[in-house]
Amino acid sequence: MKRIVILGAGESGTGAAVLAKKQGLEVFVSDLSEIKPEYKSMLDNYGIVWEEKQHTEIKILNSNEVIKSPGIPDKAPIIKKLYALGTSVISEIEFAGRYTQAKMICITGSNGKTTTTMLLYHILKNAGLNVGLAGNVGQSLALQVANQSYNYFVVELSSFQLDGMTKFKADIAILLNITPDHLDRYDYNFQNYVDSKFRITQNQSSEDAFIFWENDPVIKAELEKRKIQSTLYPFAIERTEKTKAFIQHDDLIIKILKTIFTMPSSDLALQGMHNTYNSMAAGLAASIVNVRKESIRQSLQDFQGVEHRLEYVATVRNIRFINDSKATNVNSCWYALQSMKTPVVLILGGTDKGNNYAEIEDLVRRNVKGLVFMGLDNKALHKFFDGKIAKIADVQSMEDAVKNAYIMADAGDTVLLSPCCASFDIFQNYEDRGKKFKNCVRNL
Which of 81, 218, 299, 443 has the fewest beta carbons under 10 Å from its own? Predict the structure, then answer.
């Protein structure tokens, strides 16, 4: 019997374990951290053997194949030992893809992927398609493949998930943009990260679709170097002869095959330039799977948005508070600052992933009146921003961050939490950070 070892017992690891067990494989789950109670009980319900707070090498190195959590880097000692033995190490998505015939619509990019994923899922579900939501959002793909029977999956993929995928194929691949992120995981070599993102096109044929932002300089340069086999569906604000989604006379237009979809861009539920791109990408994918135009139009109008992504929280004494905790890289913060219409007090900081803050420097100088650095180590932020903004405060808790930002702001201003950084120095994850921000704002 084939022996599968799963490293990491979070959402993806537990889902993979359940699927492996249902496929009649021998399964062992190992997590260096403590396993959450809900995942322990799921593993126990399926009779799956697990361990926590350790990796017992003798039980791991004898596996036929290892499924690793996206959070475990290739540099981890146990992974190095597995590679040295020639053991196949894959991601949960790669594993799940073996056991389903569902069409895979996969979304990646440095920014906007969660919004686009949720928007596309909303469109397809409203159109009556039998569709699941997976990857970085929703339940793990493996758990849904084990327990559900969907015709389509909308899957949000991070670069870490793509790294562990070799035979998996996206029927529709969406690449929104590429800007430096997670460089600490890619030996501080941007090309390694770019290569990772482009894995979303691997194994595609001419019958498959590749949707991408036509004017992204990195994507543009890569397309000249690569032979992409799939049918190309570029989107952009301004049209060239190849553009399939664009803006003309303030209308969003999608033009594929013999169909032309059009709607006023002012009717889109998601406003702002970056959201127009997200709507184009989702609209293109929905058009490719033949969702009716009226249905696409309705869903693009009534979509509610994503928690922790430019989420309005409250207005206190005429100061607006916006939660953009999901902005874990500099480019995300750039989008947030670009969409602000008032002076801003910006809350930044957390675990720095090798960030280059030059990208937001102009917007900070132009629109930001105060900075609040929230982290255990703010040296990199001080090194870049000291002397550029008059008001800067250092804090180590969300309560102090909100209080300081509130004091710095005047009536008519916006306090924006858009940290540029991962959250793990003080918070469990970006959701925890965003929820604490909202609670602190409501307690003002």
Answer: 443
Whether 274 has a pLDDT exceeding 90, the answer reads no
Clarify whether residues 39 and 121 are in a common domain: no
- How far apart, in whole angstroms, are the C-alpha atoms of residue 45 and residue 283? 41
CB of 168 closer than 8 Å to CB of 162: no
Bridge pairing between strands 319-323 and 311-316: antiparallel
Pair (263, 316) in one structural domain: no
DSSP three-state, residue 276: helix
> Residues 120, 123, 127, 130: is their CA dihedral positive or negative?
positive
Edge-to-edge strand list for the sheet holding 88-90: 49-52, 26-31, 3-7, 65-68, 88-90
Question: Which of 302, 328, 346 marks a domain boundary?
Answer: 302
CB-side neighbour CA atoms (13 Å) of 267: 14
Domain that holds residue 24: 3-89
Instruction: Give the single-character DSSP code of 422.
Output: B
pLDDT at 181 over 80: no
Q: How far apart are the first and last CA of the chain?
A: 60
Q: What is the DSSP letter of 35?
A: P
The pair of structure tokens assigned to 39 is: 């995942």
Chosen domain end from 302, 333, 348: 302
- Other beta carbons within 10 angstroms of residue 304's beta carbon come to 10
Which tokens go with 409? 């702001």
Residue ranges of the alpha helices (H) in 339-416? 358-367, 379-385, 398-408
Which one, of 242, 174, 234, 230, lies nearest residue 206 by Cα? Answer: 230
The answer, yes or no, to whether residue 351 has pLDDT greater than 90, is no
Work out the average pLDDT over 301-325.
Answer: 92
| Same structural domain, 337 and 260 | no
CA distance 9 to 33: 9
User: Is residue 76 located within the same domain as residue 134?
Assistant: no
The reply to whether 79 and 128 lie within a common domain is no
Q: What's the CA gap between 255 and 216, in Å, rounded?
A: 20
Q: How far apart are CA 148 and CA 309, in angstroms?
A: 29
User: Model pTM?
Assistant: 0.81
Number of domains the chain contains:
3
